[in-house]
Amino acid sequence: MAKQQQEHVIDLDQSHFCCSVCLDLLKEPVTIPCGHTYCKVCIEGCWDQEEQRGKYSCPQCREEFSQRPVLRKNNMLAEVVEDLKKTSTQQAPPPAAVACAGPSDVSCDFCPETKPNKATMSCLNCLASYCPTHIEPHYSVPVLKKHQLVSATIPLQEKMCMKHNKLMEIYCQTDKMCICYLCIIDEHKGHSTVSAAAERAEEQKQLTVSQKKVQQREKERKKELNQLIQALKKYKSCSGTAVKTSDKIFDELITSIKKKRTLVKQLMQSQEKTAVTKAEKLQLQLEDEITKLRRRDSELEQLSHVDDNIHFIQTFQSLSTSCESPDLPSDPVVCPQHSFEAVTGCVSELRGHMEKLLNDTWPRISVTVSTVDVVMPPVPKTREEFLRYCCPLTLDVNSAYRYLSLSQENRRATSSSRDNYIGIHSDRFTSIKQVLCREGLSNRCYWEVIWSGCTCSVAVSYKDISRSSSDSEFGNNNKSWSLDCSQQGYSFRHNKGSKTVSGPRSSKIGVYLDYRAGTLSFYSISVTMTLLHKENTTFTQPLYPGLGVNDVSCWPSSGSYAELIKLW
């Protein structure tokens, strides 16, 4: 039974039985009222330094005692520590190959300086580093076996106090730095201090939490990477399909144009053949008639020299009856130049129409292609990042309700009791105190609105929103989205639906639109930015920012305003 208990002690971690003041195994352990245990000499030394204060504290938890506690030896713990001292021995590690120290390695302090070996262990008692050869005595000499060994990862000089040249074994929580024993009674006197081991244990917990966060972040990033890889594959596939489809469409257009070219060519050649055939037939007829006329002329010439009158009269009568020419086709031969100029004119006009169509369509194709992304840009997180997307906005006078007064370079809309009628316009709201901006947005944009009074509406709307019906109010139709701000809180409205929005009250509202991503976000702005509401949808038309001022329930029912802040 005793042997089993002894084996159990051997398995215990020695660090659990170390004094947090001297960092060595407890010597004559005493437990103070707060529950922490120290060497009797160590705790008495600490309390001797606090004698003048009249208060005594625990070096670990800092609990204070008005009277100096009476110290009694913890016999059970003393026996455990004594058994641990008797049975605990340092086991030498298997022999390791001795290597020369490199520029970034810790050198053995016992090797020749000209060619030192790489140190593998450092002794915190000897304050020296050893290579595998020179560390051997620490595994065999009884006195050295009790020394505390650590891996030689950094030079011991970096663990030494630069002022006192002592090993830093204490952590000052007040100044957040490692110190030695002498520092406690010097410039760090009265500070909150703990052993380096205790601080390590505490920060080890934080490390575990940080590591979990890093692992979670890594998991998220791996998921995002996988999504990106899949999106990239899909993007390439879609791009290849689009290129093939475009090539096919252009090939069909080219084929269609070639067919029309062939058809026009055939029409002109057919027309040419018909006209040439007709002309050649007429040519033969004319040539035949000319031959006959020449022969008749020759006969008449011969007859004119005949002396016999009777022969002359009889012959001339027979010749004169056959002098008449046969009827030729009455259709005139039209000059080909005029006919085919009209044809080439029509073809040229067709070319002009096609070029205009291509020139008009190309910008839309170019813009559409340029907006196809694999990865959307990151969403801004700070006001400085949002301000990168600020855009100049101006209220449209032609859309303003007649009892709204525009000022501040047409950026402020103020409720007015005076009729500001400036003429009839199809864009003017006729029943609601609201106004749209002149600029239509179809990209990433950010703007801010400051408001005062009873109720303000910060909205976006399509251009074709109704201007006169009862459904023309922002958020009361499917063409506008509105955040209503009042002294009581916020609400979001769209298509006659209303949703209460919680968040800090502020007279300044930020609006962020990511048109392509289909998101519309509203923020409460004070010292920080707080997201009030984010709407996800698909926009089909450019969006126009709008402002509404509703002070019907306020007294006086004028003076309330909403203003676009000049950020640009």
Helix/strand/pairing category = alpha+beta
Rg over CA atoms, rounded to whole Å, is: 51 Å
CATH topology of the domain at 383-564: Jelly Rolls
Task: Bin the strand percentage.
Answer: 15-25%
Query: How many H/I helices?
Result: 10
Q: Percent range for helical residues?
A: 25-40%
Shape: elongated
Unreliable stretches: 1-11
What's the name of the CATH homologous superfamily of the domain at 383-564?
A: SPRY domain
Average pLDDT over all residues:
85
* Total E-strand runs: 23
The top-level CATH class of the domain at 383-564 is Mainly Beta
Strand order of the largest sheet: 11-12-23-14-19-20-21
Largest sheet features? 7 strands, antiparallel
CATH architectural type of the domain at 383-564: Sandwich
> How far do the termini sit from each other?
84 Å
SSE topology sketch:
Blueprint lengths: L1 H9 L18 E3 L5 E3 H10 L6 E2 L6 E2 L9 H13 L33 E3 L4 E3 L6 H4 L1 H4 L3 E3 L18 E3 L4 E3 L1 H4 L8 E3 H108 L5 H13 L14 H35 L12 H5 L16 E4 L4 E4 L18 E3 L7 E9 L2 E7 L18 E7 L2 E6 L2 E5 L6 E7 L4 E7 L3 E8 L7 E7 L10 E4 L4
Helix pairs in contact: 7-8
GO biological process, one term: innate immune response
Keywords: Coiled coil, Immunity, Innate immunity, Metal-binding, Zinc, Zinc-finger
Pfam family, one: PRY
